[in-house]
C-alpha cells in the first residue's frame, strides 16, 4: 500500500488522492476527503500500448496530473472511461484528453446535464474543501465531448490486455461493466457492488436492472468471473457476485417497484431543484 507524499509544485492535488497496487499493473485510487459511503473507486490498468483509467471521481483535483506526478502514468496514451456518468464517476473526465462513454449517456455528458449525472453533493461530504470559499452548491459536472462512443461488445485494447464492454442498464441507462475475460476480472461500476443497489434515480429502470443481474449470473455460471472490482467499496469474488445479483432479481417484485417509484419521484424533484430551481 502506498500513500503519495507531497511533490514540488503539486500542492493543489498531491494529498487529495490515495492509491494502492492491487496486482501487477492494476491500481486502486480513491479521493481521500470525499465521504467514504459515496466516493467511487478509480481503477488504473496499465497496458503495454496504452493505459486505462476506469471512472474519474469528482474532478475537484486534477487526476491525470496526480497520476503522472507519482509515476503511475507516463508517455503512453491514457484513455478514461466511465462506467456511468453520475457525478461521482464522471466529474473528473474533463481533465483527460481522451475519454469514452456508453452511447446511451453520451449526449447527456456532452450537454453537461447535471440532472442525468445525478449531481447531488453537500458541503459536509467533502471533508477538506479543494480551495478557500468552495461550496458544494456550485459544483457541476462539466460538459465533455467523448473521443469514443462505446457499445455492448466493443473491445478496449491496451496491447497486452483487452476488455470487453458489457452494457448493463438499470442503475442508469448507460451503465457498463468492463470484462477482462482472459483474467476473469469484472470491473462492475455501479451495476453491482457490496451494498444496496440503487435503482431509483431518474434514469434507473428496474426491468433493465433485472436483465442485467441475470446476465451477471450467467457470467458466473459460465465461470467467466472470479474477481469483481466494483465502483464502490471493496472487491469480492464470484460467489458474492452471484448472491448480490440473484438477490436483486428475487426481491424486485411489486412492493419493491412501488417503493422505488416513490423514491425516484422524490430524487427527481430534489435533483431538479438542486440543479435548476435556484
Query: Can you list the strand order of the major beta sheet?
Result: 1-2-3-4-5-6-7
Assembly annotation: single chain
Question: What is the tally of beta strands?
Answer: 13
- Which structural category do the helix and sheet elements fall into? alpha/beta
N- and C-termini, Cα separation: 44 Å
What is the second-level CATH architecture?
4-Layer Sandwich
Uncertain parts: 1-11
Q: Give the number of helices.
A: 6
Shape: globular
H-E string: EEEEHEHEHEEEEEHEEHH
Mean pLDDT: 94
CATH superfamily: Ribonuclease Z/Hydroxyacylglutathione hydrolase-like
Helix percent reads 25-40%
How many domain modules?
1
Radius of gyration based on Cα positions = 18 Å
CATH class: Alpha Beta
Major sheet attributes: 7 strands, mixed
Structure explained in plain terms:
This protein has 278 residues and is an alpha/beta fold. It has one domain (17-276): Ribonuclease Z/Hydroxyacylglutathione hydrolase-like (Metallo-beta-lactamase, Chain A). Helix content is 26%, strand content 21%. The chain contains six helices and 13 strands. The strands form two sheets. The chain has a seven-stranded mixed β-sheet. A six-stranded mixed β-sheet has the order 8-9-10-11-12-13. α4 (206-221) links the parallel β11 and β12 (227-230). α4 (206-221) runs antiparallel to α5 (238-251). The N and C termini lie far apart (44 Å).
Amino acid at each position: 500500500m502506498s500513500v503519495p507524499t507531497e511533490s514540488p509544485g503539486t500542492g493543489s492535488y498531491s494529498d487529495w488522492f490515495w492509491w494502492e497496487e492491487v496486482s501487477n499493473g492494476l491500481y486502486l485510487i480513491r479521493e481521500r476527503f470525499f465521504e467514504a459511503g459515496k466516493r467511487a473507486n478509480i481503477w488504473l490498468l496499465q497496458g503495454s500500448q496504452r493505459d486505462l483509467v476506469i471512472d474519474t471521481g469528482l474532478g475537484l483535483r486534477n487526476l491525470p496530473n496526480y497520476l503522472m506526478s507519482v509515476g503511475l502514468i507516463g508517455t503512453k496514451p491514457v484513455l478514461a472511461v466511465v462506467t456511468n456518468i453520475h457525478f461521482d464517476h464522471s466529474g473528473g473526465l474533463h481533465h483527460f484528453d481522451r475519454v469514452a462513454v456508453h452511447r446511451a449517456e453520451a449526449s447527456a455528458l456532452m450537454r453537461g446535464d447535471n440532472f442525468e449525472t445525478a449531481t447531488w453533493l453537500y458541503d459536509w461530504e467533502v471533508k477538506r474543501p479543494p480551495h478557500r470559499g468552495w461550496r458544494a452548491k456550485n459544483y457541476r459536472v462539466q460538459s465533455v465531448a467523448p473521443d469514443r462512443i462505446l457499445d455492448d461488445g466493443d473491445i478496449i485494447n491496451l496491447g497486452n490486455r483487452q476488455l470487453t464492454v458489457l452494457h448493463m442498464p438499470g442503475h442508469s441507462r448507460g451503465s457498463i461493466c468492463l470484462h477482462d475475460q482472459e483474467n476473469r476480472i469484472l470491473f462492475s461500476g455501479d451495476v453491482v457492488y457490496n451494498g444496496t443497489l440503487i435503482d431509483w434515480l431518474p434514469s434507473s429502470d428496474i426491468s433493465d436492472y433485472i436483465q442485467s443481474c441475470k446476465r451477471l449470473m450467467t457470467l458466473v455460471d459460465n465461470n467467466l468471473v472470479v474477481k469483481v472490482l466494483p465502483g464502490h467499496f471493496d472487491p469480492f469474488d464470484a460467489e458474492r457476485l452471484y448472491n448480490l445479483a440473484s438477490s436483486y432479481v428475487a426481491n424486485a417484485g411489486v412492493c419493491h417497484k412501488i417503493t422505488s417509484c416513490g423514491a425516484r419521484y422524490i430524487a427527481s424533484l430534489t435533483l431538479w431543484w438542486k440543479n435548476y430551481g435556484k
